[in-house]
Amino acid sequence: MIVGIIGLGLIGGSMALDLKRRGFAATVLGVENDPVHAAAAGKMELVDEVVPMEECLDRSDIVVLAVPVGTAVKMLPGILDRFQTGGGSKIVLDTCSTKGRICRQVRYHPLRSRYVATHPMAGTEYSGPWAAMTGLFDGRACIFADSEESDPQALAAVERLYDVLNMRPIYMNADNHDVHTAYVSHISHVTSFALALTVLDKERDEKHIFDLASGGFSSTVRLAKSNADMWVPILTQNRDNVLQVIDTYIEKMNQFRKAIAEGDEARIRTLIDQANRIKKILR
């Protein structure tokens, strides 16, 4: 098996490491447009070879599209076009955090069935080949979106790939995926960005504010370190769902604000007790 990975950042690089080390791929080819990242990936031996895009598509049995979703939407049709000239037996999957638009982009492509839409729910706030690590995906969930649109053989191959990465498969349609990730992932990043901006504004006047920051602040604002190149297209492509979640979040913040402003300790306690129910879900 030859696996080609387009985009050698946190997700692509980590996938390359484990697919090779765990025996799924005999050879891992990498494509990376950033020359600094490409050189780093080569020196770090994330992949066996860093090659041009066309060579990667021609040589690989499975191609992993691990680039920001805005770029992936543009690239995927051309990848499937290239597969047509090779007989249509190759497989391409993406790892993007939104699925609706990218699935619609190739819905009527003649080789749509050779595409498997996935979202491995794993990551950190770091980016680039230096962030790649082994074991990143272990025990995490992987979403398969619109899997009924994929050829059974292609789907089975990608299921095996994620099984090697020790991921749990979950199946849903693309639009439902985007709703759910808006609630459990995208809003977390927006609130982290907003909190970081709030504290940075305050820090202009109070130079010691970061000296007082505890572990709670660090964990809450950790996601604010995430790369804008990845998150701008995610938030814009999933705009309607993200806006709905932001509106609900603001509503809850206003409930806290009103209770605090009125000194309503009973109401504050009720809100906190209601929030504590999350313990039953997240253990």
How many structural domains? 2
CATH class of the largest domain: Alpha Beta
The CATH topology of the largest domain is Rossmann fold
Low-confidence stretches: none
User: Which sequence of SSEs, written as H and E, runs from N to C?
Assistant: EHEHEHEHEHEEHEHHHHH
> Shape, please?
globular
Percent of sequence in beta strands: 5-15%
CATH architecture of the largest domain: 3-Layer(aba) Sandwich
Percent helix, as a range, is 40-55%
Distance between the termini: 38 Å
Number of helices: 11
CATH superfamily of the largest domain: NAD(P)-binding Rossmann-like Domain
**What structural category arises from helix and sheet content?**
alpha/beta
Query: Could you give a short account of the major beta sheet?
Result: 8 strands, mixed
Q: What is the residue-averaged pLDDT?
A: 92
- The radius of gyration is 21 Å
* Largest sheet, spatial ordering of strands: 3-2-1-4-5-6-7-8
How many E strands? 8
Relevant terms:
283 residues; 8 strands; alpha/beta; 6-phosphogluconate dehydrogenase C-terminal fold; Rossmann fold; 8-stranded mixed beta sheet
Describe the overall structure.
With 283 residues, this protein is an alpha/beta fold. The chain folds into 2 domains: 2-172, 3-Layer(aba) Sandwich (Rossmann fold); 177-280, 6-phosphogluconate dehydrogenase C-terminal fold (Orthogonal Bundle), CATH 1.10.3660. Helices cover 51% and strands 13% of the residues. It has an 8-stranded mixed beta sheet, sandwiched between helices. The longest helix has 30 residues, at 174-203. The radius of gyration is 21 Å and the shape is globular. The chain starts with a strand and ends in an 8-residue tail after the last helix.
